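Example (one chain per record):
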Amino acid sequence: MIPEETVNEIRERVDLVSLVGEYVKLKKRGGNHIGLCPFHNEKTPSFNVHAARGFFHCFGCKASGDVFAFLMRIDGVSFPDAVRSLAERAGVELPVTDAREDAAQRQRKQQRESLVALMEAATGFYAKQLEQHDLAGLAREELRSREISLETAREFQLGYAPDGWDALTHFLGERGFTPAEGEAVGLIVPRRGGDGHYDRFRHRLVFPIVDLHGRVVAFSGRRLPPVGEQAAQEREPGAKYVNSPEGPLYHKGDVLYGLHRGRVAMRRQSRALVCEGNFDLVALHQAGFETAVAPMGTAFTEAQARLLKRFAQRVDLLFDGDAAGDKAVAAAHPLLAAVGLAAHVVTLPRGADPDTFLREHGAEELRQRIETAPPIVQHLIDRAAAQAAGDPHAQAEAIASLGPVLAVLGSPLEARLHVERIARKFGVRDVDAVRAQLRRGLSGARRPRRDRPAEAQDAPGPVERPRPFRAPVLERQLVGALLDAPELVTGEDAARLTELLTSEELQSIFQSIARMMEQRGQVDFAALRADFTGHSVAPWLEQRLAVPEYDAEGAERALADGVPLLSRQWVERRLSRLGAQILEAKRAGDEDLARQLMRDRVALYRQNKPVGSE
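Predicted structure:
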């Protein structure tokens, strides 16, 4: 448990404008900074950041909060992870719970930081070689042939691994990195026949693989035409791609190439575009498809599906137009369904991949295919029907193969509708026979378990939703004026709000402001927001904290004009209520009570009679 005072210290030290500015281009406007919201698509900026108060608010999608809320939302991390990340950014030491474990963690952190520094050094080395090495022209020609610009190559930090055995090994050694560290991240390999090491990547175009936090954690090397000893010996060419092995920084099933670059666009659009190859990914980003990501040398995994779920609600699968691409789509379906991601399938001409399709047909044609892509189940049904057309036995087997496809759907109604679609697509009038064949297909396939993250398994059951926040506009304006100028809470006008406010939520906020001013002489806006977390008034409060409306003079004028008007409204309600009570007393035959209520009503009217009236 992280102490509240530590959380507050981190909140105070982190500059929200600087943090948000890493994701959003902000422009200063008055006391605020504004920009395009990173959480939804918009053309006119509605995202506001108030530096002094440390709050953000979007008038479009209503997202709001402090530095922790922003990082949790933009990177899809938990509150403890956000606290740890921002503590490191702010230089705040988190409290130690176990001295030995803390020492071990510090050691692991230092080792990890050293490995990250090594990877950054290697990235710079490869990038420099791409521009300067004598043989790097082959790598640059590979880029030109695929119409990848040098600007894009620099953005993705592409590089060239020199021909020869130990260019990188010597480079790392000269900069103080040990062979053990180079081995740990898979960049150098020990020689079999004796001492020394050699480079894993030799004469290859190198793609640095960046994790969600922007750190280089691995490399992928693409084969180039042979030179030197390779060409002279005319031996079999090596594998088209060589990838870093898994290690302390890299677990290939947990990383998506391009996610760090595309996560803001993905969050805005709530969509992700999943392709397969390195060049596909780079070409898609260059063509403006900023949400593109790619698995690294492995089939799409459930961990990657969960990672996408943190940023998107829909996934468009853009795999190669071949049998392997078809197989990859079928394998991805249960993984995406398990995490609740809607999936669509973008079809390419047979034999095409996204890279070649872009060069031959252009970005607009691909964009149209993405926008018209069918849902994944519809695609799998249509594909099964097309492949089995004209052969009754093949059709029966194809229908059976769709049983597991429907079994992973979370909605029985959706599954039922797809059963009817299957019957129509295969031309079978007997829907019950189709259901029986689908069940037969399930007999040999177990339904995958819908694993949930640990935090979801411990989540509490359904809770009662808070009632919507509704309050008169005038009351919201007056309490908002006190949020903008809390020092006015002790004035004569503000003091009357105690009895005049009809909204319980606004009454509570008013009392909190008054209490903080009395005890501290200022309002702790972060604490004020925390007091109302989960309440129906929280969205309104966060918006007002992020976007002030009054300066001190304007707030004073708003109170001077608004409190008398609110008082008159209170009197009118009270007079109306007394009138109803008088009638009720008369109907009950209680004349004494009726006369007393009448005297109260007259006294209230005289006390609040407009000036100059008879």
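Caption: Residues 552-587 form the longest helix (36 residues).
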